[in-house]
């Protein structure tokens, strides 16, 4: 009887963990400097500082961030016409050291790592 109760308790705990909602990503998951083969991006609450491999620096104003369980969307102001556009980031590693800029109409998937 005792072992059956133990197994039942374990089964309930496992089901609870599987059913528990994931927590949404937050600014802490994207904040700071990230490197790619194309240069680097540094995320602050109000700006993305992009340094391209050729040395060009772009300071992009952030309009806002949107967070889900698996993705962060950064809404930022285009330099050309001051319109708002967005970039999606996902595939965040459990240790917080890797993420990817997801494929969009503006470009291919780009792997990022903390630098």
Characteristic terms for this protein:
115 residues, alpha+beta, Lipocalin, eight-stranded antiparallel beta barrel, 2 helices, 8 strands, 19% helix, globular, disordered N terminus
Describe this protein's structure.
This protein is an alpha+beta fold and 115 residues long. It has helices at 2-19, 27-30, and strands at 32-36, 39-43, 47-52, 57-67, 71-77, 84-90, 98-101, 110-114. It has two helices and eight strands. It has an eight-stranded antiparallel beta barrel. The radius of gyration is 19 Å and the shape is globular.
List the helices and strands and how they pair.
Elements: H1 2-19, H2 27-30, E1 32-36, E2 39-43, E3 47-52, E4 57-67, E5 71-77, E6 84-90, E7 98-101, E8 110-114
Antiparallel strand pairs: 1-2, 1-8, 2-3, 3-4, 4-5, 5-6, 6-7, 7-8
């Amino acid at each position: 009887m005792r072992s059956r109760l133990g197994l039942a308790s374990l089964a309930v705990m496992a089901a609870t963990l599987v059913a528990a909602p994931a927590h949404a990503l937050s600014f802490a998951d994207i904040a700071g400097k990230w490197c790619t083969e194309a240069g680097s991006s540094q995320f602050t609450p109000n700006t993305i500082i992009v340094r391209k491999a050729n040395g060009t620096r772009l300071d992009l104003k952030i309009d806002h961030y949107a967070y889900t369980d698996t993705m962060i969307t950064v809404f930022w102001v285009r330099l050309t016409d001051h319109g708002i556009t967005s970039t999606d980031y996902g595939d965040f590693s459990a240790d917080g050291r890797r993420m990817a800029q997801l494929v969009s109409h503006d470009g291919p998937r780009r792997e990022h790592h903390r630098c």
